[in-house]
Specification:
Length: about 100
């Protein structure tokens, strides 16, 4: 385990703690989840380079694609929530029903 791996693991732990302590703002939750998935993708790529295996790189690419889709859907929900309520708060998501 080298220094880059330790830095990425530290960033991932910071992101998890951000999810634990921040539960109200949707934008922050989206940014933290992007950070976590990005670091996981980088860890997969670094592991595949160290092991000389292509599956880690393919997994990193899959995670990157999933992250982009999650970001687009999340931002669409934020735009709809803001246009209906004028507030970006996770507690107001129930106002999007029907």
């Amino acid at each position: 385990m080298n220094l880059i791996d330790l830095i990425l693991i530290a960033i991932y732990v910071i992101g998890i703690s951000g999810l634990i302590f921040n539960k109200n703002n949707i934008i922050n939750i989206l940014i933290i989840s992007e950070l976590n998935l990005g670091t996981l993708g980088m860890l997969f790529v670094l592991a595949s380079v160290e092991l000389n295996d292509i599956l880690g790189e393919l997994s990193g690419l899959y995670i990157l694609t999933f992250t982009a889709a999650e970001s687009a859907i999340g931002l669409a929900i934020v735009v709809i929530l803001y246009s209906k309520t004028g507030i970006i708060n996770i507690r107001h998501l129930n106002k999007l029903k029907g």
